[in-house]
Amino acid sequence: MITPVKFNRYAPQVLDQLGKSGAFLTVRKGEAVNTMTIGWGSVGRVWSLPVFTILVRHNRYTYQIIKDGGTFGVSLPLDASLDKELEYCGSKSGRDVNKERECPLRLLPAQVIDSPVVGGCRLYYECEIIYSQSMALEALKQDIREQRYAKEPPHTLFYGKIVACYLGTGEVESRE
Ligand SMILES: Cc1cc2nc3c(=O)[nH]c(=O)nc-3n(C[C@H](O)[C@H](O)[C@H](O)COP(=O)(O)O)c2cc1C
Fold first, then answer.
1. What confidence tens digit (pLDDT) does each residue in 79-138 have?
2. Is the CB of 57 within 6 Å of ligand 1?
3. Is the confidence at residue 171, as pLDDT, over 90?
4. How far is ligand 1, taken at its centre, from the CA of residue 3, in Å?
5. What 3 state SS string does 97-156 have?
6. Is 90's C-beta closer than 6 angstroms to any atom of ligand 1?
7. Does residue 176 belong to any structural domain of this protein?
8. What is the Cα–Cα distance from 78 to 118, expressed in whole angstroms?
9. Which ligand 1 atom is nearest residue 57's CA?
10. Is the C-alpha dihedral spanning 97, 86, 42, 167 positive or negative?
11. What pLDDT digit, counting tens, does each position of 35-67 carry?
12. Is the pLDDT of residue 175 over 60?
């Protein structure tokens, strides 16, 4: 059953989950669908809109899809029940494996957007990309640049307007 909730209702739980085992980011362009794990991101207001911000590194297969796609889904378990799946989606690439089949993941159609979401999660965000910007590394504080980007390519920041936010099965409070 799906219960709509205000986008910021569970913001502390979202930030906790991102900082622990992460969240599922699912994207789609035509036939291509892929899910990867994200740990960097936030829920907030930008341009007076509810926005989920994510960072996707340019060497991810997900990047190949999202850069031309218009939407993304974020699925959050809010507990440890899908930690194994989050680990899998955060270590394997959709270039090499079909994660939906091999992990496996139960992908479900979203309510509003094209990209699906991952079944079995407690909280969902459906987002429409309203702004994206490849990082200007020269603008980043030097110590972070050296630590995070000396050996790996930059991220693109995607700002997704939250067009739907809802609970999956069960209540979040009962799991705290
Ligand atoms: C807990 C966790 C958090 C992660 N957070 C991010 C992130 O915010 N951005 C990113 O680009 N990669 C992140 N990654 C790495 C990607 O999930 C990983 O490289 C993945 O295999 C990419 O899959 P893909 O090639 O199918 O897109 C994270 C990995 C883990 C395990």
1. 999 999 999 999 999 999 999 999 999 999 999 999 999 999 999 999 999 999 999 999
2. yes
3. no
4. 28
5. CCHHHHCCCCEECCCCCCCCEECCCCEEEEEEEEEEEECCHHHCCHHHHHHHHCCCCCEE
6. yes
7. no
8. 13
9. 11
10. positive
11. 999 999 999 999 999 999 999 999 999 999 999
12. no
Query: How far is residue 90's CA from residue 85's CA, in Å, rounded to a whole number?
Result: 8
As given in the structure block, the two tokens for residue 7 are: 């986008």
Q: From CA 78, how far away is CA 22, in angstroms rounded?
A: 9
Backbone phi, psi, residue 61, to 5°:
-60, -40
Confidence class for position 31, pLDDT limits 50, 70, 90:
very high
CB atoms within 10 A of CB 6: 10
Residue 54 CA: nearest ligand 1 atom is 8
- Domain harbouring 104, CATH code: 2.30.110.10
The total of structural domains in the chain comes to 1
Q: How far is the CA of 38 from the centre of ligand 1 (A)?
A: 5
Atom of ligand 1 nearest to the CA of 38: 5
In a domain, 163, yes or no: yes
pLDDT at residue 170 is higher than 50: no
Under DSSP, the state recorded for 43 is: E
Assigned domain for 127 exists: yes
Q: How far is it, in rounded angstroms, from Cα 70 to Cα 160?
A: 9
Judge whether 68 lies within some domain: yes
Range of the domain at 39: 3-171
